[in-house]
Design a protein that fits this description.
- The chain is 36% helix and 21% strand.
- By secondary structure, the protein is α/β, with parallel strands linked by helices.
- Strands 1-13-12-11-2-3-4-5-6 form a nine-stranded mixed β-sheet, sandwiched between helices. A four-stranded antiparallel β-sheet has the order 7-8-10-9, with helices on one face.
- A hairpin with a 4-residue loop joins strand 4 and strand 5.
- Bound molecules: magnesium ion.
Length: 265
């Protein structure tokens, strides 16, 4: 976190984002797609699918989704588009050549967390327990008034097992086995083609994206916080619509530049 307020995204000069020198990393929920009370009902609007496709084309494939969702879930939402993805907050990663790596995670603490969460969710209709590879998440978007009780259950789970890493996102508490983070996933992509040697750009909306914003500062990358809240990001988009409009315009512009450069060559 920084005391300095981020600059408005409109002040980010598109020439700083040359398609052959920039690697784009984007969060999904709250950044590209609107939230829904049922996380499985979330979808990517057509224009945003087009923006991603144009960005991927313009950059030679240097676009990756960095999400808390499982890779399979992101693939389903982006289809027929398929891009590199880091899922479950960095616990799994599929690179540009299609190779997927899963972090080794201990199963026992996850099983214990599930055993504790499922009866709690059954007791409170509207709460949702989501199982992902290496993690289990408790969603309370439909029952925001239950946040204190959810936090209490979370505390009882982590008191019982210190091997779980707790992430508190928007209307969700997630229990992650394994320490890999979104920032680690971005760093791993940057070791590989076609991301290697490029300036990283990352946009995200949640507190779980702050570790990437901090890493962007260290890497002299560009970071964009979507929406309000204290942040370490250098730029801020007022909200998801402002960000998506900006991204659509950038993707069109870069795609056009790339096409005219290719035509001249
Ligand atoms: Mg998000």
């Amino acid at each position: 976190m920084t005391a300095e307020d981020p600059q408005p995204l409109a002040e980010l000069d598109p020439p700083r984002l040359a398609p052959e020198r920039t690697a784009f990393f984007l969060d999904f929920d709250g950044t590209l797609a609107d939230f829904n009370e049922d996380p499985s009902a979330v979808f990517l609007p057509e224009r945003e699918r087009r923006s991603l496709g144009q960005l991927a084309e313009a950059t030679g494939g240097a676009v990756a989704i960095i999400s808390g969702r499982a890779i399979a879930d992101i693939d389903r939402m982006l289809a027929p588009l398929k891009v590199p993805v880091a899922g479950v907050h960095g616990l799994e990663r599929r690179n540009a050549s299609g190779k997927t790596v899963h972090a080794d995670v201990p199963e026992a603490p996850l099983a214990a967390a599930r055993t504790r969460l499922q009866p709690f969710a059954r007791l409170h209709p509207g709460l949702l327990v989501e199982e992902k590879p290496g993690s289990v998440a408790l969603h309370f978007r439909s029952r925001p008034e239950l946040e204190p009780q959810c936090l209490e259950v979370a505390r009882s789970i982590t008191d019982a097992d210190e091997g779980l890493h707790v992430l508190h996102g928007k209307m969700v508490i997630e229990f992650k086995a394994g320490h890999a983070t979104k920032a680690d996933a971005v760093a791993a992509f940057l070791e590989e083609e076609p991301f290697r040697g490029r300036k990283p750009f990352f946009a995200g909306d949640d507190s779980t994206d702050e570790d990437v914003f901090v890493r962007m500062l260290e890497m002299k990358g560009i970071s964009v916080k979507v929406g309000p809240g204290l942040t370490a990001a250098a730029y801020r988009a007022g909200g998801i619509d402002a960000f998506r409009d900006w991204l659509a315009s950038l993707a069109r512009q870069l795609n056009h530049t790339e096409r005219s450069t290719a035509a001249r060559a």
